Amino acid sequence: MPEIGLAGQKKLHESFVLIIGCGGLGSIVAPYLAGAGVGRIRLVDGDNPSLSNLHRQVFFTESDKESKSITLSKHLRKLNSEIRVETLSQMLSKSNVEDAFHDVDLVIECSDSMPCKYLVNDYSHFRGIPMVYGAIHKYEGYVSLFKNESSEDCHLRDVFPEINRNIQSCSEVGVLNTIAGIIGLFQANEALKHILGIGKSLEGELLSYNALENSQFKFKLQKNWRKPIKQTLDTLDYSDLGCETISEISWINYLKNSDDYQLISILDSVEEPVLIDGAQRIAMRDLKPNHIQDFNKPVALYCMSGKRSAVMVTELLNLDSALKVFSIKGGRHSFKDAH
Asked: What's this model's pTM, rounded to 2 decimal places?
């Protein structure tokens, strides 16, 4: 194609792209960039493929045992042996963000964690690294390009100023699997256009796509966030299970010592009609420190994926640091794997 040519292939070969998250979005984005000839790709994800996620993470299989980043990297090397693929098999956090971002030209945000998305956004803007944003929810998806060339450039906080920790993840609320593929392709396309300098980018716009209606809209972004981004980075910890580890136990450890814990489900009866044996139900909206104090032993909370229970544990400990309360890693989705 004349729009690309040898000069364009050279741009692709010399580019270095960081992909945060190798699930439903990242596993779509990465092969298309590798196939297009992006010379260097770094994959960041410490999670392993889960059976409950395979409907939207169609690259992975039931037999995959290694982390998503390792599994995906092996595929990329088979797809294009002339590119360089690096992996960081860890969840992104403030402690490793500098290593993850080292030397990259472009960041593509593909995680399923609100705090992680904001960490990627804030650090990208602070370092002046362009970022392709993508998010999915139920049957809708969103894409944008944040160029981050100056402090006046729009970024995620100009659209959604603060982290909303109550938004449920794809694992918890459900998602139409095709929307992950569609938005992942939009992200890959936006990345290639940016690298090649062709077409009209989504800079200054947020693309919203509805898979049920086959409709899409582009919203003009306006600069609203005026706080120093460095101050934001310094003061926030961006913590949840998607980015950092909090007080948690596994189902295996709980089951071995179940008599030592009080098991609490923070799910409502619609999400979980039948409780796990030994559990009591206290909906997340109703749970207070005094409920934990009423039990004479440590309390183990669970939700569907472990994310909401992690947020709940953090909030409870912020109110009373002496509480003996834990989140069960992986939530109800991983309960059957522990038997």
From this structure: 0.73
How far, in Å, are 83, 172, 201, 263, 309 from residue 256 at the CA level?
46, 26, 54, 13, 20
Task: Specify the 3-state DSSP secondary structure of 282.
Answer: coil
Q: How is the chain split into domains, by residue range?
A: 5-235, 248-338
The Cα 102–Cα 220 span in angstroms is 31
CATH for 5-235 (1.20.1250.20, 3.40.50.720, 3.40.50.12780, 1.10.10.10): 3.40.50.720
Active site residue 243: no
Q: Which of 116, 154, 170, 303 is catalytic?
A: 170
Superfamily of domain 248-338: Rhodanese-like domain (3.40.250.10)
Which helix (H) or strand (E) element contains residue 265?
A: strand 262-265
d(CA 50, CA 215): 31
Residue by residue, pLDDT tens for the chain (339 residues) are: 878 899 999 999 999 999 999 998 999 999 999 999 999 999 999 877 766 667 677 777 777 778 889 999 999 999 999 999 999 988 888 889 999 999 999 999 999 888 899 999 999 999 999 999 999 988 999 999 999 999 999 999 999 998 876 565 555 566 788 999 999 999 999 999 999 999 999 999 999 999 999 999 999 999 999 999 999 999 888 875 344 335 788 898 899 888 889 999 999 888 889 999 999 999 888 888 888 888 888 999 999 988 888 888 888 887 887 788 899 988 998 887 766
